[in-house]
Each structure stands twice: as C-alpha cells, then as structure tokens.
Automatic annotation (TrEMBL):
<dbReference type="GO" id="GO:0005789">
    <property type="term" value="C:endoplasmic reticulum membrane"/>
</dbReference>
<dbReference type="GO" id="GO:0001579">
    <property type="term" value="P:medium-chain fatty acid transport"/>
</dbReference>
<dbReference type="GO" id="GO:0044539">
    <property type="term" value="P:long-chain fatty acid import into cell"/>
</dbReference>
<comment type="similarity">
    <text>Belongs to the ATP-dependent AMP-binding enzyme family.</text>
</comment>
<dbReference type="InterPro" id="IPR042099">
    <property type="entry name" value="ANL_N_sf"/>
</dbReference>
<dbReference type="GO" id="GO:0005886">
    <property type="term" value="C:plasma membrane"/>
</dbReference>
<keyword id="KW-0443">Lipid metabolism</keyword>
<dbReference type="GO" id="GO:0090434">
    <property type="term" value="F:oleoyl-CoA ligase activity"/>
</dbReference>
<protein>
    <recommendedName>
        <fullName>Long-chain-fatty-acid--CoA ligase</fullName>
    </recommendedName>
</protein>
<dbReference type="InterPro" id="IPR020845">
    <property type="entry name" value="AMP-binding_CS"/>
</dbReference>
<keyword id="KW-0436">Ligase</keyword>
<feature type="domain" description="AMP-dependent synthetase/ligase">
    <location>
        <begin position="12"/>
        <end position="334"/>
    </location>
</feature>
<dbReference type="GO" id="GO:0005324">
    <property type="term" value="F:long-chain fatty acid transmembrane transporter activity"/>
</dbReference>
<dbReference type="InterPro" id="IPR000873">
    <property type="entry name" value="AMP-dep_synth/lig_dom"/>
</dbReference>
<dbReference type="GO" id="GO:0005743">
    <property type="term" value="C:mitochondrial inner membrane"/>
</dbReference>
<dbReference type="Pfam" id="PF00501">
    <property type="entry name" value="AMP-binding"/>
</dbReference>
Length: 518
C-alpha cells in the first residue's frame, strides 16, 4: 500500500511551490495556485468519504473542461475512488452506455448539462446519487432530478489531507472516442498516468517554468494526462481552454505568455486556414506537443508560426506500444528500435487486407512488415512491467478482443492496436458541391494502393466530429451506401470504366444482389 500514487506525487510538487499558479481557467480568468488545487481536492476527498464511498467505487464526472474537473478526479483518487471521465458532448443512448459501463455509485454533472441528464433520468440506476456543480440557472430542473448541489457541500468540507492510504493502482476511466461504435471505458492506472506525462516532459524538452495552453477536452487522455499531468507531476502552469477556437488561439497564447501548446487532429490545419493576425508574431510558444500532424501541414505550420520544436507521438490511452518522434522528422510519429528490440518489444505486423486478421508464418507467429509496408502495431504484454502492461477495459470482452497470442514468440500475449473499419467508403464535406470526383480519383490513385481506394464516395454538407476532431463514423456506417437513406450524392467506383459513377437506386439493388461486381 506504499506505492507512489498521482496524489502523493502531486503533494510533493505542492510543497515546493504552493503559491505558483497551477491551473488557469481561460473562460473565467480564475487562477488556482498549487495550494488551491490541493485544498479543493482534499475537500472532494472528504466529501467522498462522507458520502460513504470506498476504495474501488466509481463516480461518473460529466462536465466541461475546467479546474473543477481536475480537483474532482484528483480528490476522488486520494481516497481510492475512480472517476469515469465522460465526454460532455454525449447525449441519450451514448451517455447512458458510458454511465452503465462504469457502474458508478454517484454522478457529478455540470449545471449546463442539466437538460442532457434530464433526458436520460428515467433510465439511470435509481440508487446512483446525482450531484450538480456550477451556476444553477434552473433550480426546478435540478429538483426534478433529485440532485444535490455539490458546491456548498464542498465549501463546508475540510481542506486538510484525508487520512487514507491507497492500496490499489487504478486511477480513473477514460473512454475511447466512439468513432466506430460505442465508447469503451479504458482503465488508467497511476503508473500509466505517470509514464505518459513523464514521457512528454522529458522527451520534448519541457521545463518547470513552462506555461502550457491546453485547448483539448479533459475527458481525453491528451488533455487530462499529457497536458494536466505536466502540472500535477512537474509543476508547470496549465491554461485550460474550454473549447478550441482557431480565432482566439494565438491571442490567448500571448495573453497568458504560453510557451508550449497542445494539438490533436486537425487543429494545426484549422490554424493555418486563419487569416494572419498580429498575435502570431508576438507569442512565446517554442514547442507544440500532440499527434496527427500531417506531413503536408507540418512544415507550413512551424514556418508560419515560428515553432522551434514539434513533439509528435502516437499512443492510445490504453495501449502498451506508444511511439515518439524525438528527432523532429517531418511526418513521423515515432520509431521502432532495431537495436534494443527486447527492451521495448513493439513492431508492425502483416494483416489480411480484407479481414484485418493477423498473418502467420509456418511457426504460427506474426510476420514483421518490411519498411514501407502497411500493417498493425502490436506490443508484447508483460503485466509486471509498467511500460508493457495492458490494463484493458472495464468490459472483459473488449479487453480480450485487443489481445493476440503467439505474436513475437510461441505462447506470448500482445496488444493489437487495430485498423478500425475498412477503406471501403469515403465521406467528404462538400457544402458548396465543388468536389470533382474525377480529380479526387486521380489524386487518390497517386496516394493510395489500389486496395485502399474508396469503393464508394459520399459528398455531404458536414461531418460530425468528436471533441478532439475525430470524425464520428457510426452514423455513416449505419447508412452505408444506400441512396435511400440519405439525400447526399453517392458514387461508386466502376473499376472497369476506371471512374466514379453516380449510384442510383437501381444500381444499388444490382450491387447488393450481386448482379454488379465491384
């Protein structure tokens, strides 16, 4: 029970600099010192004990990015209670799914999400306690939910350290994005949180006096671990932006004298699309940390915004095969060591193009990809090693689905990163109907192998995205290429003619009946 936990490591940081700004809420201008954050977290810990919560219990947190969210999960962790960080954009069935998977004894929600909770109230577990935080604009709605107002309860809670010693390693739950199905609840342990945060701090040249601009959602590992983790474990100041704004980005960086920024998905492309503004030349940002920076955007981004270092990495919340680009090679997310393969055993392995099943050799082992060959990333599992362990998901079936055996050697186990979905259909946001499908095909043929060309093409007005700018594919998958389910123009690739042709209801019937071969 004496292992180092995130709360204990944070306590050591607070002792060194209690009055230094820890978290800054951009929306309100509120500044929390390290001592403030610690005392508010202590108040949460005492509140949890007063509610009868015990080690191993779960509390769902359903609120936007703000310092309060950090104090809630950190305070719960001080007494061994796990927070389930639920995406505040979820509604109805997706929200219910995430709550049900975590099986929480209580749920804390932001006042701005009262209506969303009301929509699912009848389906929530009756024994689950409801607590609301934030400005109460609709007292009647909170009353109809039977929810208690958390803020006055915390105001009366002790701010001294709670008398408790942690014995378990589980810290909190973070959900996958749910781009291809319902979100899965990934288990994050204290050692994994430390590894991810330390990985970023030491690899990308961060310093204790850095100020990080964090516009990523705190229900996501990039925002809550890679970002906030620099504050909790290394004493950096983190500016929390509740929602990414390309227009305000550089103005905010100048205002708060930020020296590091976080990005994910298409943020860098959105910034490049903005008109030049004076703040671009006034900021002090020297390093950008994140993943998904495309090669075509990378060089333009660093040149225009004078970014000295890009810290690109790859790693799902739950994976044991993270990669890091330590030399700034444009377009790379990391490397696999050929010198020390046993120290960090990861590799790309071959898969069947259609089924994505692992290809095996005569000995029944997976086959390593050659340079430039596509494949899936796997990492050997060793539950005794913090770098190689795989803690999986709350759902054991989902955990088993991500594990393969006899990958590196006979009888071993490995985490399989996957390739979600197939390159069967592409949806393009084309509100002005300016896309030329012939030009698209010619460009795609240059960039993709023949088997990866989209067989179907859909031109749509907008694309639904997650809070981290990943495209939500589930609705698109459900509608498929049936022209009867959408008013969007849909095309199919006529391989014999070598072009995309409009998909009519009749041609759709021919394809589904097998009369038309693709």
């Amino acid at each position: 029970c004496n292992h180092s936990s995130i709360p204990s490591l944070f306590s050591a940081v607070v002792a060194l600099q209690p009055h230094k700004p820890a978290l800054i809420d951009e929306a309100t201008g509120e500044v929390w010192s390290f001592k403030d954050l610690q005392e508010r977290s202590h108040a949460v810990a005492h509140w949890a004990l007063q509610q009868g919560l015990v080690e191993g219990d779960v509390v769902a947190l359903y609120l936007g990015s703000c310092p309060m969210l950090v104090s809630l999960w950190l305070g719960l962790a001080m007494v061994g209670v796990e927070a389930a960080l639920i995406n505040h954009n979820l509604r109805q069935s997706s929200l219910l799914h995430c709550v049900a998977v975590a099986q929480p004894r209580a749920m804390v929600y932001g006042a701005e999400l009262t209506r969303a909770v009301l929509e699912v109230k009848a389906s929530l577990e009756p024994s689950m306690g409801l607590f609301c935080t934030g400005l109460q604009e609709d007292q009647r709605a909170r009353s109809s939910l039977g929810a208690d107002h958390l803020d006055p309860m915390l105001a009366c809670s002790p701010t001294a350290a709670p008398p408790y010693t942690l014995c378990k390693d589980r810290l909190f739950l973070i959900y996958t994005s749910g781009t291809t199905g319902m979100p899965k609840a990934a288990i994050v342990v204290h050692s994994r949180y430390y590894r991810i945060a330390a990985f970023g701090f030491h690899s990308f040249g961060l310093r204790g006096d850095d100020v990080i601009y964090n516009c990523l959602p705190l229900y996501h590992s990039a925002g809550s671990i890679m970002g906030v983790g620099q504050c909790l474990l290394f004493g950096l100041t983190v500016v929390i932006k509740r929602k990414f704004s390309a227009r305000c980005f550089w103005d905010d960086c100048v205002t708060y004298k930020c020296t590091a920024i976080q990005y994910i998905g298409e943020i860098c492309r959105y910034l490049l699309a903005q008109e030049v503004r004076p703040s671009e030349a006034k900021h002090q940002v020297r390093v950008a940390i994140g993943n998904g920076l495309r090669p075509t955007v990378w060089e333009k981004f660093v040149k225009r915004f004078r970014i000295r270092r890009v810290g690109e990495f790859y790693g799902a919340t739950e994976c044991n095969c993270s990669l890091i680009n330590i030399d700034g090679k444009v377009g790379a997310c990391g490397f696999s060591s050929r010198i020390l393969p046993n120290f960090y055993p990861i590799r790309l392995v071959r898969v069947q193009e259609d089924s994505m099943e692992l290809i095996r050799n005569a000995q029944g082992l997976c086959v390593r990809c050659t340079p430039g060959e596509p494949g899936v990333l796997v990492g050997r599992i060793d539950q005794t090693d913090p770098l190689r362990r795989f803690d999986g998901y709350v759902d054991s079936e989902s955990t088993a689905h991500k594990i393969a055996h006899s990958v590196f050697t006979a009888g071993d186990s490995a985490y399989v990163s996957g390739v979600e979905g197939k390159a069967g259909m592409a949806a393009i946001a084309d509100a002005d109907r300016q896309v030329d499908v012939g030009n698209f095909l010619r460009a795609a043929e240059k960039a993709l192998p023949s088997y990866a060309l989209p067989v179907f093409l859909r031109l749509t007005s907008t694309l639904d995205t997650t809070g981290t700018f990943k495209i939500l594919k589930m609705r698109l998958r459900q509608e498929g290429f049936d022209p009867g389910l959408s008013t969007d123009p849909i095309f199919y690739l006529n391989s014999r003619a070598g072009c995309y042709e409009a998909l009519s209801p009749r041609r759709y019937c021919d394809i589904t009946a097998g009369r038309e071969r693709l």
